[in-house]
Write a structure and sequence with these properties.
The structure is a single chain. By secondary structure, the chain is of the alpha+beta class. It has one domain: Sufe protein. Chain: A. The protein is 40% helix and 19% strand. The protein contains 5 helices and 4 strands, in the order H-E-E-E-H-H-H-E-H. The protein has a 4-stranded mixed β-sheet, covered by helices on one side. Strand 2 and strand 3 form a beta hairpin. The longest helix has 18 residues. The protein starts with a helix and ends with a helix. Bound molecules: zinc ion (ZN). The site of zinc ion has 8 residues, from helix 2.
Amino acid sequence: MHSNSLYQEVILDHNRKPRNYGKLNPASHHAIGHNPLCGDRLDITLQVEDERISAVAFEGESCAICKASASMMTTAIKGKTRSDAEMLIAEFRELATGKLDINQPHHLGRLTVFSGIQDLPTRVKCAILPWHTLQAALNSVSNVSTEDTSNDLQAVSSQS
Ligand code: ZN
């Protein structure tokens, strides 16, 4: 279950020691994501071999929530298949926007510490940006923004 102290502890830990921080070279997939509302900017590189994410790295300038979400995302998806990663992207979006019932079966594990983000509408995009950027990279889209008119995150901003 979510608790504020666990949430803060996890955010602090991943900001002090971000996992998989840096840039892969070579990388089979790459995308840059922006969240203009906060100023978050992430650069995500992936190595996908036989439909499996064998390596992932991120770097950029972002707030603590975005950085912790990116760091935890890299550990969650490393070694996973592309379809498992797509499932986690969908589940995390639902979690962050309050649409996921965390008492039902899901695959998010420790990522559920972000369940409280739904009560902070201005920070939802900070938490989602890494996942949004990952999805873009997997689909060979090189540049994305949380403010793109064609994505469902618009519904989030209209609430804030
Ligand atoms: Zn942010």
